[in-house]
Design a protein that fits this description.
single chain, mainly alpha
């Protein structure tokens, strides 16, 4: 027996489309996304999604924007209730990022590819920098406390980001050596974090 189409109040369909689109992205990748198929999955008319997304690219942009907003919120939440020490704060941020990347590998790929698109919206670019700006601010905080070597902040931030992104990518794609990640996303990350902290530490002449 055919079920009747679901009915949505104004504003609900957009959220439902994004939720189902992210599920499809995770299951089958961006090539499988189709506004027509999403409409069918949600039991609405083929034309209904066009009220919220003019085409597939608009849907992808919205997914990326939502992903960056969640990543920024995750980064900010990781700092709540912590002490003043730079190492503790960096550890919380690093573990939060790797956990997000491991749980949202396909979405993260889409987020960064969309961010670097020349046609990316100003809103997307702005929110894309929220989480990295938070990390840079944390490094500046460590410099003020004397826990991070002095100099241009990007001279410290770039190696930190490179190590973090590299580990996150290995974790998300299952390329870590056996036993490194264990059962939880980000387990085994503390060794990488110690390496980062040693590289960011002040020189003996600064201490």
């Amino acid at each position: 027996m055919q079920t009747s189409p679901r009915r949505y109040h104004h504003g609900d369909l957009r959220a439902a489309l994004l939720t189902r689109a992210e599920e499809t992205l995770r299951e089958r990748g961006p090539a499988a996304l189709s506004l027509r198929e999403l409409a069918r999955d949600l039991g609405v008319s083929h034309a209904a999604p066009s009220r919220h997304f003019k085409d597939k690219q608009a849907l992808l942009d919205a997914l990326a924007l939502d992903g960056f907003e969640r990543l920024a919120a995750t980064a900010e939440a990781s700092q709540e209730g912590l002490g003043d020490g730079f190492a503790e704060r960096l550890r919380a941020l690093v573990h939060a990022y790797v956990a997000f990347a491991s749980a949202n590998a396909e979405l993260l790929d889409l987020m960064y590819s969309t961010k670097h698109d020349p046609d990316a919206s100003k809103a997307l670019v702005a929110v894309a920098f929220r989480w990295s700006d938070h990390a840079i601010s944390l490094i500046e905080y460590g410099q003020r406390r004397g826990e991070v070597r002095q100099g241009p902040v990007m001279g410290v931030a770039l190696p930190v980001f490179a190590a973090l992104h590299g580990y996150a990518d290995l974790a998300a794609t299952g390329m870590l050596p056996p036993g490194t990640a264990d059962e939880e996303p980000g387990q085994g990350l503390d060794e990488v974090l110690e390496f980062i902290l040693r590289g960011a530490a002040p020189d003996s002449a600064e201490a």
